[in-house]
Structure formats: structure tokens, C-alpha cells
Design brief:
737 residues, alpha/beta, binds zinc ion
Length: 737
């Protein structure tokens, strides 16, 4: 859970996904498809647009059904490409809307599935610039484009003739004759329009579009402010200030300082990958506080990058927008098409777990306080504060479980972990990964990126490619995420999936193994779960690749469980120097410590998840964001030693777009499914490699993506709904009586 909350994003795009286009940070909607624009007047032969002149819109060439030309990305083409791609897509939709024939599934719904091809290609590049290769120059373009994307989106949902056709198909008797996945596709298309205000008219309609436009700009500004505060603060330290910090951290910090013209010093950057280890190991309490304050003040410094006013405005606009559609609050609108269905049900789940988490935090703090007091003169004693939590938790971990994170790290090599993931993918999915040769004709956007071919082992059939961009660098956003450049579809012949994983591991010294923390190893498996979810897809229509927010993290969270299976431990968790497998005693220690610090991990997550729901169910008319956060935390009884994992002014999941807005609870929702599904494996005769359960897992919970309602898919897998007590057991919390 911690790991997944740290690295929550799966990003897949499709042209017609409205706000997905302007939310660079969070989006989990749908991948690309292969449309051909239909003719202007009705006929059966599609007219093919001439090849667009802009290189970012050009058809993908080369092997594997064509691959993105990442080696020919030119930023100066970006803005013109965006305009042209939107124009093309709108023209395609206009053609569908103006079709003289009566609307049918094929000439309306499937035709829409085929539209927006150039924009999909554009978006593969745009996503790279926004997440992997960002520059101030790009961010300027992004800010200029945001309102234009929004305008384009509004034009689609406000296309009355188009919506009328969808509505007619949706209400037709012919619908009942279609396959279940086709019926679901029609419903999803219809709902998307209805939920985006397609039914509005007159002034309300105009106002809706205005709101969308303003929101799009605010989302971009919000994200850029956080990024600016991550890049704008670097703490340079001298060697004698690094007490307690492991060599690996020092080496990374030295390189980070050198690259910023501070050779001989050590840089603590204002990102999670730098801050978390610093807070875990640095002995200097004053420096810990300084680093902690800087990090948790991102977007909250009262300067030109302050996000508080932006947040208030976002909340007000969201409330106004859903009021136009007749909803009482934003969360009600947001959750309607989620598994949870209502904010009340989501809140109920969170509040089932919150008291147990808070009680556990109090126990954890007691343990830490004892340890901190021991051997400290009475006059110099202090109360454990938020910036002490990671540090003393690690000390307690050592004392109570004799578990040293740095010792564990010696067995976690990036390359071996990747091999372990491939083994798991082979065992569960029957996939085989083969590295591509340098001359395979598959371009990459940076020298660090590597690509593998993915085959179905039994048939030898190629399924797609897996791109991996593992290392941190300036201009790459923090965290880890998965992204598809192209999703699975069969509407114009079967496509090969182009999936990617992106992380921010610290590059080791040349020739040295890259060692990662247990959390990072878990995250690596997590993101790979997203990639496998894309690669396993068997859906026919692009829209059905889309995700349901409180469900899409389930597949990836489940994958995390294989990191600590015997097969992985024995063969892949081997010491980076000796090659010896992790000793049984260390394995036992990790097992014993599995529920250690779950109070902290659960509470920091829940504080954010609850805040998200409170923010989106409260009347925001006169909201003072700063005060609201403070007062709500107090009302919730949040322990003072806990800080929200993402404080409101830096909560990109919910404010740099709408991907997770009123939806951050979804991680826990998905984690209930995860814990419950993991028990299905654990209880089976074959354990985590049980062939039959693996088969059911892939066929019911991975391959159908969104072609089956998640609730039904889960019942088909488990024979019943998921049970929250599995999650409580998993975290070592007592079951409520
Ligand atoms: Zn995820």
C-alpha cells in the first residue's frame, strides 16, 4: 500500500478522453487505437486522410506494427502537432455526426473507436515530454496548450448531433442483440457524454465549457508549482553533516551536488526519493526537521508557487460544474461509475480502517519514544515529532526485529529484480521477455531506456513490447508510473501492445549493481503489474482498455505479492557481491517485520484519502484551504506525528488533473481486493504459483480490462465479493467486533 501510494500512476491515453489530455500527472484512462476517418458522406469505403506533415503525427513505422519515432521528437513541432491532431479528430467526429444513415453500433460507436488516431500518436510523445523529459520550454507550451485541449474536449461532449446518435444507439432495441462487451461499450460511451454535460443546453452548456477551460489551466499551474518547488530547493551539505547516512546515499548525493556546480558537497534534493532516505537515516535532528519542512511545504510557501488559492478555485469550479448536472457534490458525481458507487461507501471503508491505524500509530510512537529516551539525559529529551518517525521507526525495526534495511538492500539488485518479474510473468501469464538488439529498429527517447519483446510462450506469438526507463534525471517527474503507447484492439486487425514502466532509481557507479530499497523493489513489481495488465488485454475495442479508478490499482498491487515468494527469494534476491541467496534468517526477519510500521503507512495514506473525500463533499464556497486541512486533521483525531502522505497543496493526484480526485481512496478499495485475492493464492495447493488460480486470475481479472464490470469480474474469480477483513489481517490490525 505504501509503495503503491508512492507510485500510483498508470497512464494510458486516448484522444477522446477529455481531461486525460491536460493532466500530465495523473491519468488512467485508455490507450491508443487505430482509427481511420470515415467518409464525409455515407459509403462503405473509408477515406484515408493524407499522411499528416507534422512528424509527431506521422504513422508509426518500423517493426511490431510500427513504433513511436522517439528518436525524432522535436519540441518545436509540438504545438502545431497538437492543433492539427485536435482538428483532425474533431473533423472525424463531425463526419460521424453528419452521417446520413440512421445511427448504428457500427457507424457510430465503432466509428468513434476508430477516430483520433493522429492524436493518440501525438499523445505518446506528449506524455514523454511531460513526464520523462520535461523542460521549462515544454512546460510553457503545456500551459499554453491546456485551455486548447479543454476547448477541444468541450467541443466533443457538446456535439449535439453526435450525442443524439449515441443516445439513439443506446436506447435502441438492436442494443440487446449485441455481445455483452459491445453493450458495455455503448453504455460507457453514453455515460461519458452524459456525465460531461452533453445533455446541457443554452447558458448552462456555455458555462460548463468555460469551467472546463479554467480548470484545465489551473491543473497545469498546480502541477508546475509543485515541480518548481521540487526543483527549486536543494540543500547542500558538507561531509560532516551526513552522520548516519549510508554510503549509497552519500554517493548519490555527491553526484547530485556535482551536477549542480557544488562539487565536493552533498545535495539533498526536494523529492521523495531523496527525502525519504534522508529522514530515515540522518542522525542530525535539526537537519531532518529542515528537510521535512521543505518537502511538506511544497506548494505552500506563500510565494508565486503557492497552490492554496488555486485549490480553492478548483474546488469551487468542480462543485459548480457538477451542480449543473444535478449532483449534490463533486464526490457524488465522481464515484457514480466507480466500484464504490457513493462517497458514503468509500468513506465507510476508510473509516473501518482509520481507528485501527491510529491506535497502531500510538503504539509505534510509544516504542519510538522509549528508544529515543534511552541513553538521553533527561534535560535533553524531546517528544517524537513527524520528522523523527522514519528515523526512529528504523531504529525500532533494528531493535525489535534486528532488521537492517541496508542489509536487505544488498540483496535487491535492479537487474535481478527485473529477471524475477519476467519469471513471474512467465509462470502466471505464460509470457516470455527477450531484450531487443540495438539494431532492432525500435527507437528510444533516452540512452537509459531499454526495450524487450514480449511473446506468448506456448504459441510463440508476439504480444508487444515493454519499454523500461529506470533512472532518475532532471526533468523527469518523481515517483514511478506505467504508461501504454498503444493498447490492445482488434477492430482493424490485432495491435501489438506497447507498454512502458518508468522509475526514479538512483544510477549506481559504473559497473556496480544498482541496489534498491525494499519499498522501491515493491514499487517496481507494482508498476510491472500495470504493464502486464496492458499486455494481457484481450479486448476488441480501445475504450474497453480503460480503467475504473478504484479497480485499476488492484492488478498492480496484487503483483507486489510475488516479490516475497520462495521462488523469487531463492533465485533472485541474491547478494550483489557474493551471489548468495538471502539467508533464511534474514527472510524470517522480514516476514516477522511484515506488519511493522503499518500504523504509519496506513495512517499517512488514510489522512490523504480522507482529506480528498472531505474536500470534495464539503461546500467550497468560502473555503480557506490551509485552515480546512488543519481543522479536518484535528477533527479526524490525526496523531501529531503523522503528516498526510500528500499534503493538500502538493496533492497532484487530485489537483493536477481529475485522475484521482475524490478517488485517492481507490488504493485502499483496490487493496481490499488485493488482500482477498492474495488469500485465494495463499490458501491454494500450489500457493502463489498455482496454475489454476493463475489461469482464473488472468482470464477474469487481467485480460478483460474494462469489458466486464469489475464487481462481476471479481465474483467470477472468487465466487463471492472481496472481504475487508482480509485487509485488516494483512496489516496485522485487529478485526472489528
Ligand atoms: Zn499503480
Amino acid at each position: 500500500m505504501v509503495q503503491s501510494a508512492a507510485s500510483p500512476m498508470q497512464k494510458t491515453f486516448h484522444a477522446s478522453m477529455l481531461l486525460a489530455l491536460v493532466t500530465a500527472l495523473v491519468a488512467c484512462d485508455r490507450p491508443t487505437n487505430d482509427p481511420r476517418p470515415p467518409p464525409v458522406t455515407s459509403s462503405t469505403t473509408p477515406a484515408i486522410d493524407p499522411q499528416p506533415a507534422n512528424p509527431l503525427l506521422a504513422e508509426w513505422e518500423g517493426p511490431y506494427g510500427g513504433v513511436p519515432a522517439f528518436d525524432r521528437m522535436v519540441l518545436s513541432s509540438l504545438e502545431a502537432a497538437a492543433a492539427e491532431a485536435m482538428r483532425l479528430h474533431l473533423a472525424e467526429l463531425e463526419t460521424i455526426a453528419g452521417d446520413a444513415r440512421p445511427p448504428t453500433f457500427d457507424n457510430t460507436i465503432v466509428a468513434m473507436e476508430r477516430s483520433g488516431m493522429a492524436l493518440d500518436r501525438f499523445h505518446a510523445y506528449y506524455g514523454i515530454w511531460s513526464s520523462n523529459l520535461s523542460t521549462p520550454e515544454f512546460r510553457e507550451i503545456q500551459t499554453r496548450l491546456a485551455p486548447r485541449f479543454s476547448e477541444y474536449s468541450s467541443k466533443i461532449t457538446q456535439n449535439e448531433r453526435l450525442f443524439a446518435r449515441i443516445k439513439e444507439v443506446h436506447e435502441s432495441d438492436a442494443l440487446k442483440e449485441l455481445r455483452p462487451d459491445q453493450q458495455r461499450l455503448v453504455r460507457l460511451r453514453y455515460d461519458r457524454f452524459a456525465r460531461q454535460g452533453a445533455m446541457l443546453a443554452g447558458e448552462a452548456k456555455a458555462r460548463y465549457a468555460e469551467i472546463q477551460m479554467e480548470l484545465a489551466e489551473l491543473y497545469t499551474r498546480f502541477g508546475n508549482n509543485v515541480l518548481a518547488d521540487e526543483e527549486g530547493y536543494v540543500l547542500f551539505l558538507k561531509e560532516d553533516q551526513l552522520g548516519g547516512l549510508p554510503e549509497s546515499f552519500k554517493a548519490t548525493a555527491a553526484r547530485a551536488a556535482a551536477s549542480r556546480d557544488h562539487k565536493g558537497e552533498f545535495a539533498v534534493t526536494n523529492t521523495r526519493s531523496s527525502v525519504d532516505p534522508f529522514l530515515t537515516y540522518a542522525d542530525d535532528r535539526g537537519l531532518r526537521e529542515k528537510v521535512w519542512r521543505t518537502y511538506y511545504s511544497r506548494g505552500d510557501n506563500g510565494d508565486e508557487h503557492d497552490n492554496n488559492a488555486i485549490i480553492a478555485r478548483i474546488l469551487q469550479l468542480r462543485a459548480e460544474r457538477v451542480a449543473l448536472l444535478g449532483y449534490a457534490n463533486y464526490a457524488q458525481w465522481r464515484l457514480e461509475d466507480r466500484m464504490a458507487k457513493t462517497p458514503e461507501r468509500a468513506m465507510e471503508l476508510l473509516m473501518t480502517v482509520w481507528p485501527a491505524a491510529v491506535a497502531r500509530v500510538k503504539e509505534e510512537v510509544r516504542d519510538m519514544q522509549k528508544l529515543a529516551d534511552k541513553g538521553t539525559k533527561r534535560s535533553q529529551r524531546f517528544k517524537i515529532a513527524a520528522w523523527d518517525y522514519r528515523y526512529y521507526a528504523d531504529k525500532v525495526r533494528l531493535a525489535k526485529y534486528d532488521l537492517d534495511s541496508d542489509e536487505v538492500k544488498q540483496y535487491l539488485q535492479l537487474d535481478k529484480l527485473r529477471e524475477a518479474m519476467f519469471m513471474v510473468a512467465g509462470e502466471l501469464f505464460g509470457f516470455e521477455f527477450t531484450p531487443l538488439a540495438a539494431d532492432a529498429g525500435v527507437p528510444v527517447f533516452h540512452g537509459d531506456v531499454r526495450v524487450w519483446e514480449v511473446k506468448e510462450r506456448s504459441s510463440g506469438k508476439v504480444i508487444g513490447l515493454w519499454y523500461l526507463d529506470p533512472f532518475a534525471r532532471p526533468g523527469k517527474r518523481s515517483g514511478a508510473w506505467a504508461n501504454s503507447y498503444r493498447g490492445h484492439t482488434t477492430i482493424d486487425g490485432e495491435t501489438l501492445v506497447l507498454a512502458s514502466n518508468n522509475s526514479n532509481f538512483m544510477k549506481g557507479a559504473p559497473g556496480e549493481a544498482v541496489l534498491v530499497s525494499w519499498d522501491d523493489a515493491t514499487t517496481f513489481f507494482h508498476e510491472f503489474g500495470h504493464a502486464l495488465h496492458s499486455l494481457a488485454s484481450n479486448v476488441d475495442y480501445p475504450t474497453l482498455n480503460g480503467g475504473v479508478r478504484d479497480y485499476t490499482e488492484f492488478q498492480s498491487q496484487l503483483l507486489e505479492r510475488w516479490l516475497f515468494t520462495d521462488k523469487v527469494i531463492e533465485r533472485y534476491l541474491v547478494h550483489h557481491r557474493t551471489g548468495a541467496p538471502m539467508p533464511a534468517a534474514l527472510v524470517a526477519k522480514i516476514e516477522r517485520a511484515a506488519t511493522f510500521n503499518q500504523g504509519f503507512a496506513t495512517a499517512e495514506y488514510l489522512a490523504s484519502a480522507l482529506m480528498d473525500l472531505y474536500l470534495h463533499t464539503t461546500d467550497p464556497t468560502a473555503i480557506d484551504v490551509d485552515a480546512f486541512e488543519r481543522e479536518t486533521l484535528t477533527k479526524m483525531g490525526t496523531p501529531p506525528e503523522i503528516v498526510m502522505r500528500h499534503r493538500t497543496p502538493q496533492f497532484g493526484h487530485i489537483f493536477s488533473g481529475e485522475g484521482y480526485s475524490a478517488g485517492y481512496y481507490g488504493y485502499m478499495w483496490a487493496d481490499v481486493l488485493t488482500a482477498d485475492a492474495a488469500e485465494a493464492f495463499a490458501e491454494s495447493s500450489g500457493g502463489f504459483y498455482d496454475k489454476e488460480i493463475a489461469k482464473a486470475l488472468v482470464s477474469h481479472l487481467f485480460a478483460p480490462r474494462n469489458s466486464v464490470a469489475p464487481v462481476e469480474a471479481y465474483r467470477a474469480f472468487r465466487g463471492r465479493d472481496a472481504d475487508v477483513s482480509a485487509l485488516l489481517r494483512d496489516r496485522g490490525f485487529p478485526l472489528p467486533r
